[in-house]
Specification:
Layout lengths: L15 E6 L2 E5 L6 H14 L16 E5 L3 E5 L2 E5 L14 H13 L9 E7 L5 E4 L11 E7 L2 E5 L9 E5 L4 E4 L8 E3 L14 E7 L4
Antiparallel strand pairs: 1-2, 2-11, 3-6, 4-5, 6-13, 7-12, 8-11, 8-13, 9-10, 9-12
The protein binds N-(carboxycarbonyl)-S-(naphthalen-2-ylmethyl)-L-cysteine and fe (iii) ion.
Keywords: Dioxygenase, Iron, Metal-binding, Methyltransferase, Oxidoreductase, Transferase
InterPro entries: Alkb (IPR004574), AlkB-like (IPR027450), AlkB-like_sf (IPR037151), Oxoglu/Fe-dep_dioxygenase_dom (IPR005123)
Pfam family, one: 2OG-FeII_Oxy_2
Length: 219
C-alpha cells in the first residue's frame, strides 16, 4: 500500500496556535504527525533508562513514572530535587536526546517566539490511570529566560494553569495527543500541574499518557 500524506486525514490534522497568557502558547496537534516516531524513541530511551516512580524530599512516591534523555536529567530523592548527568538507577549517563526531539522542541519554541532554544534535558513523564501531578513550580533550571516546551502523547488529561502564587486559582486546559505547550516569559515560574488521569485506551499508547518536557537546565 502506498504511503501518502493526506492533509484531510484526521490522524494528521493541521496544527493551530492558541495563546493562553503572556508567554504561554498551546500549539494544538503540533506533534501529531511525529507522534509515532516520538513514541518509538521513548521506548528506546526506556530500554536504557527505565521508567521509575521517584521519591520526593518529603518521602512521597510520585504517581507518574519518569525517565530522562539528554546531557542532564531531573531527579528527586530524600536529598532534594536536582539535575544531574548520571541516572541514579544505573550510574550511567542518560540516553542521548534523539535529533527528532531537539528539532521538535526548537521548532515549537520558534513558533511561540522563542528562537534559539536548544534543550539540554528532556524529562519524560508516564501517567497511568490514577496518576497526577500536584501544583508546583519548575525552578531547578539555571536560566528562567528559556521557555519550557511540553509535548502530550496518548490519553488526554486536564492541565492546571495556575499563577505566581500557589493560592492563585488555576485555569483548566485539556491537553490532547499531539498538543505542544510552550511556556516562557513572565509565566515561566507559574504554578501548574495535571489532574488525575482517567482510564482509557489510546490507539498508540494504550492505557498511558506520556509527557515530554524539554528544558534548558544548565548554562
Ligand atoms: C508551566 N509536567 O514535568 S506539562 C513537569 O503534564 C510538568 O507532565 C506536566 O509539570 C505534565 O514539570 C505539565 C506543561 C508544563 C511543563 C512545564 C512548565 C507547564 C509548565 C513549567 C513552568 C510553567
Ligand atoms: Fe512542571
Amino acid at each position: 500500500m502506498a504511503m501518502t500524506l493526506d492533509l484531510f486525514d484526521p490522524q494528521t490534522p493541521e496544527p493551530w496556535l492558541e495563546r493562553e497568557a503572556d508567554g504561554v502558547f498551546v500549539l494544538r496537534r503540533f506533534a501529531s504527525a511525529r507522534a509515532k516516531d516520538l513514541l518509538d524513541s521513548i521506548a528506546e530511551i526506556a530500554g536504557q533508562a527505565s521508567f521509575r516512580q521517584m521519591v520526593t524530599p518529603g518521602g512521597h512516591r510520585m504517581s507518574a513514572a519518569m525517565t530522562c534523555a539528554g546531557p542532564l536529567g531531573w531527579v528527586t530523592d530524600r536529598a532534594g530535587y536536582r539535575y544531574q548527568r548520571q541516572d541514579p538507577q544505573t550510574g550511567r549517563t542518560w540516553p542521548t536526546m534523539p535529533d527528532g526531539f531537539i528539532q521538535l522542541a526548537e521548532n515549537a519554541a520558534e513558533e511561540a517566539g522563542f528562537s534559539g532554544f536548544v534543550p539540554d534535558a528532556c524529562l519524560i513523564n508516564r501517567y497511568q490511570p490514577g496518576a497526577k501531578m500536584g501544583l508546583h513550580q519548575d525552578r531547578d533550571e539555571q536560566d528562567f529566560a528559556w521557555p519550557i516546551v511540553s509535548v502530550s502523547l496518548g490519553l488526554p488529561i486536564v492541565f492546571q494553569m495556575g499563577g505566581r502564587r500557589r493560592s492563585d486559582k488555576p485555569r483548566r486546559i485539556l491537553l490532547e495527543h499531539g498538543d505542544v505547550l510552550v511556556w516562557g516569559g513572565p509565566a515561566r515560574l507559574n504554578y501548574h500541574g495535571v489532574l488525575t488521569l482517567k482510564a482509557g485506551d489510546h490507539p498508540l499508547t494504550g492505557p498511558y499518557r506520556y509527557n515530554l518536557t524539554f528544558r534548558r537546565a544548565g548554562e
